[in-house]
Amino acid sequence: MPPSSDVAAMIALIGNPNAGKTTLFNALTGENQHVGNYSGVTVEVRAGTFFTPHGRKLRVLDLPGCYSLRAASLDEKVAVDALSGKLPGEAPPDLVVCVVDASNLERHLQLALQVVELGLPCVLALNMIDVAERAGLRLDPAKLAAELGIPVVPMQASAGKGIIELKQALRFPMPHAAVASWLTPEADPEAARRGFISRLCELAARRSEVHQLTLSDRADGLLLHPFFGWIFFLVILLLVFWSIFSFAKIPMGWIEVAQGALAEWVKSLLSDGDLRSLLVDGVIGGVGGVVMFLPQIVLLFLFIGLLESTGYMARAAFLMDAVMAKAGLSGKAFLPLFSSYACAIPGVMATRTIPSAKERLVTIFVAPWMSCSARLPVYLLIVPLLLHESEGSWKQALVLFCIYALGTLSAFAVARVLRGRLGPDASATHFMLEMPPYRMPQWRYILRHVLERAWAFVQKAGTLILGLSILLWALSTYPKSGSADEAERLAHSAMGRMGALIEPLVKPLGFDGRTGTAILTSFSAREVFNASMAILFRVRDAGDKKTNRGMLRQQIAAATWPDGRPLFTPLSMISLLVFYIYALQCLPTVAVVARESASWRWALGQFAFMTAFAWVASLLVYQGGRLLGF
Amino acid sequence: MSAEWQSLTALGLVLLTAAVLVLRLVRASRGGGGCGGCGGCGKRPQTRK
Amino acid sequence: MTLNQARVGCDLQIEVLNGPGCERLRDLGFCEQIQLRKLVGGRNLICSMCGTRLAISRELAEQVLVKAAG
Predict the structure, then answer these.
(1) Do A528 and A287 contact (CB within 8 A), yes or no?
(2) Is B47 within the bounds of a domain?
(3) Closest Cα of chain C to A96: distance in Å?
(4) Which residues of A touch B13 (CB under 8 A)?
(5) Which of A106, A131, A315, B13 is the most buried (most CB within 10 A)?
């Protein structure tokens, strides 16, 4: 992002992960950003602008969190590059704001000292003073400023306190670069820094008690227990899935009613004809089949945000480390993989925090098997058909859980094999993780984030999926055959002919040509599967209000093969689910993988492997099941 | 609306949609990362290598 | 003794860091003379240090030599 001419200066925010840099960035610029209470969430470099009280426009960069300027991982390297002006299109910053956690000065000052040593003008943002005060720390910001030679601004970014004072500290003329008074020509810089910091903390940040057993520790006693910790973890996951099924029922009902009412209204306006069919079957049916799942998507993101915000994610990563080690991955891979449950694209990008290059490649490779939220509309369409609605949300939650578990376990198995083949790293990397204290969820951020995702979902439905639904309708209507029979008309259309071509390929998997076509179209976007199914399986105006409401599930359940056998038996539905778990049906992901792994071969290899794997797995499930007599 | 009008309008909408989608695809492949490059999740990746 | 050998719940002081992971450990805050308490042991350890909870792997803990705090 090139700076505009009215910008007076550029400042960079640097600090340890979880020091509150991004919170401060948001408070300064007002940009919508994602804040996770877990080390290493910010991997991108975000830029924004704000005005000082004196009316000057300053540009600010939010650098990735790092522990030191040694640059052990990719995101730390980005931070170092930014400071030395090596970031493409960016000059070195005019000033650096070092954000430190006031309750953790012994550890956070290291980075600040290193920045001062670089010769850059610096201001210390002493953040989270509320936490420090609660911990009984006696802080003396004036003393700190005097010893360090740079301005020190106490603040609590999450409550907006100290922001004005920080802006004041950035007024012109800007502070000069300080002298690194702790460095001497003879001594080792590391030892000199350590000595200086411990003296400084004695003077200006005394602790009343060395160790206090906090509420967080007590909670961790249970949540990190080798046995109970796992039970709790699984219970949480099951609860999340259960609520997705049960709480969402009511809003989903509303959406379906609205869909039906809209369809009725259009029918009342237009007589039977192509346009009416396009609008009712193509647009309302197609887009409706996707938008219907908005409540569930919202709930999923709400829970993810809640878990991240309270700090539980770090504990989950800790627990998962042992399991992931068996897959040849470390706990560092947990967050990228977990993000992939929402969408693989940010997940793949989050792998920049993984120091080991080989582990990073493997993580990128298996990330698409963490069933992303785009698959949810497909799962949620099929799963209730497997079990009768009256069987209760618990069973459906369990099935959904098994689907996610299958994808995850397969990913680990492949990761292990791949890791073995890639060989060990040149330098060993080890697991280390900061566990922030549990916090009350930051509702403002969570809700903002959920709304962002929900809006993105609706946008995609209103644009891409709308467009594709219209095209799909066209493909299933033209060329016209002039016959009165629905099935004949479909068979004559372009989509029908495509279906006939595809059918031999998908019949062994338990699908007919129409399903096969729907699968093919969903390679453009997985949610399109629902839209395609709605169009391909539509029941013509039966005059019956219930059927006309367009309940997709009922239409599918009623579908048959030409000979009258039901098309969607439990076995074929499981086969379909298995296909969707494994198939990589997201071309943007392939593009991002190619970029992040710096290899189109890796990306295309991943695509080919996953598509083939999906086909074979589906085949094994269906044919194996038939053999066993299902 | 009579049946012919409906058919014409429907066809027109279809062709318009096809044109828009093709344009988006062409622009996207030139820009790198299809469909806005965010995978529908709302997050835009900012890459600085 | 190494951090692995120390008993859980003990107050400890770091004496020496010895091994290839030292630099990363120092970055994280594990320095000589720092006091800490071992909270959880096993495959991954959790220590409380300067008010923060830090988790490190067994291999890393092996490189940290500690003594009981006075």
Answers:
(1) no
(2) no
(3) 20
(4) 275, 278, 470
(5) A315
Distance from CA of C5 to the nearest CA of A (A): 18
CA A501 → CA A45, A93, A298, distances in Å? 48, 60, 38
Q: What is the pLDDT of residues A375-388, one digit of tens each?
A: 988 998 888 888 76
Prediction ipTM score: 0.86
Residue C11 pLDDT grade (very low, low, confident, very high; cuts 50, 70, 90): confident
Q: What is the pTM of this model?
A: 0.71
Neighbours of A605 (CB within 10 A): 14
- Position A178, amino acid: A
Pick B29 or A149 by higher pLDDT. A149
Partner-chain residue, chosen from B17, B34, B47, that has the shortest CB–CB distance to A471: B17
The structural domain count of chain B equals: 1
Enumerate chain A positions whose Cβ falls within 8 A of a Cβ in C. 67-68, 70, 72, 103-107, 110, 135, 137, 190, 194, 198, 207, 210-212, 216-217, 220, 224, 226, 318, 321-322, 325, 331, 427-428, 430-437
Structure tokens at A537: 């399986």
Q: In this structure, is residue B41 part of a structural domain?
A: no
Mean pLDDT of all residues in C23-46: 79
Q: Assess whether pLDDT exceeds 90 at residue A225.
A: no
The residue that leads in pLDDT, B30 or A85, is A85
Domain housing B25: 3-29
Q: Which residues of C touch A105 (CB under 8 A)?
A: 50
pLDDT of residue A428: 63
Q: How many CB atoms lie within 10 A of CB A85?
A: 10
B5 to chain A: closest CA residue: A275
Closest residue on chain B to A82 (Cα): B48
Which residue ranges form the domains of chain C, and what is each CATH number?
A: 11-68 (2.30.30.90)
Length of chain B: 49
Residues 6+ apart with CB under 8 A from A601: none
To the nearest whole angstrom, how far is the Cα of B26 from the nearest Cα of chain A? 14
Report how far residue A58's alpha carbon sits from residue A278's, in angstroms, rounded to the nearest whole number.
52
Q: Shortest Cα distance from C55 to chain A (angstroms)?
A: 5
A98 pLDDT more than 90: yes
d(CA A113, CA A498): 66
Would you put residue C28 in left (φ > 0), alpha (ψ -120 to 50) or beta? alpha
A and C: number of Cβ contacts within 8 A: 105
End-to-end alpha carbon distance in chain C: 15
For chain C, what is the largest distance between any 2 Cα atoms, rounded to a whole number of angstroms?
29
B8 within some domain? yes
Q: Domains of chain A (ranges plus CATH)? A: 7-206 (3.40.50.300), 247-292+444-567 (no CATH)
Contacts for A486-491: CB closer than 8 Å, 24+ residues apart: A486/A540, A490/A514, A490/A536
Confidence band, pLDDT 50/70/90 cuts, at residue A211? low
- Asked if A271 and B3 come within 8 Å (Cβ–Cβ), the reply is yes
Q: What is the pLDDT of residues B5-47, one digit of tens each?
A: 888 888 999 999 999 988 887 876 665 443 333 433 444 333 3
Phi and psi at residue C52, to the nearest 5°? -110, 155
For residue A19, what is the nearest residue in chain C, using CA coordinates? C52
Do at least 3 CB pairs under 8 Å connect A with C? yes
* A276 touches B at CB < 8 Å: yes
Q: Which of A273, A470, A591 sits opposite B3 (nearest CB)?
A: A273
Residues A615, A618, A621: CA angle, nearest 5 degrees: 150
Q: Measured at the alpha carbon of residue A13, what is the angle toward residues A139 and A126, in degrees to the nearest 5?
A: 5
